[in-house]
Design goal:
The chain crosses the membrane at residues 6-23. The protein is mainly α and 137 residues long. The chain has one domain (1-111). 95% of the residues lie in helices and 0% in strands. It is built from 1 helix and no strands. The longest helix is centred in the middle third of the chain and has 130 residues, at 2-131. The protein is rod-shaped, with a radius of gyration of 56 Å. The chain starts with a helix and ends in a 6-residue tail after the last helix.
Length: 137
Amino acid sequence: MVIEISVAVMAAAVVALVIYLILSLKKVNRTLDTLDQTLNHLKPKVDEVVEETNRTLRETRQLVEEIRVKTQKTDALFDSLGQVGTSLQELSTGISRTAVQYKERLGRVVALADTGLSWIHRLRGSRSSQHKPMKVK
């Protein structure tokens, strides 16, 4: 009789376990159905996001190419401006050197003119003293 009770308890335990497994599998099946519906609902949105991302990447590539072309053009401009700056610097240096040379020459000319004027004043001074009549006291 103990064996019969043990077998009955084991049979009841197996039935309870099978019922629990069936209920668990039904819940898993409902969860998978819900997940399938969610994925089916999200698929068009994901496709839309992927398409928009592809458009954005194409536009970005175009912008990068335009920026590269414009940068190359501005590089040539800045190279030209650099050359103009170098030329202006060389011109300024040449003008400064010429100005220094002319300044020295002008200084010499002014010194000679001053000396010449001084001589002229001395000559006039000596001539005027020769032409004046002497006063007798």
